[in-house]
Structures are given as C-alpha cells and as structure tokens.
Amino acid sequence: MENINRSVKCTVEDCRHHCRSCDYCSLDTIRVGAHEKHPSGDRCTDCLSFAEKY
Description:
Helix content is 0%, strand content 24%. It has 54 residues and is mostly beta strands. The strands form 2 sheets. Strands 1-2 form a two-stranded antiparallel ribbon. The protein is elongated and about 35 Å long.
C-alpha cells in the first residue's frame, strides 16, 4: 500500500513520489524552492523533492 499524503496535492505523474491511485504526493514532507531571485508567481517556484520515475 502506498503512502498518501492528503496535505500535498500533486499532478506530476512522472515523479517517483506521485501516488498512482490519486493526485497526491507520497512523501511526508516536500521542499519547495524558487528558481528566480524575486519570485512573482507560482510559475517561479518548483518542487525540489521531485525525483524522476524509473
């Protein structure tokens, strides 16, 4: 049985941590970061816990 963290919704099916049965993350915690010095919107941030699915 996979761990489903219902506090972290996720639609990135190519991530190793994506729950296959629903759009949630399986990690207990995630790390979010910005790829711009002064982010001004959601497109400026990334999930740094992403891991490519095998």
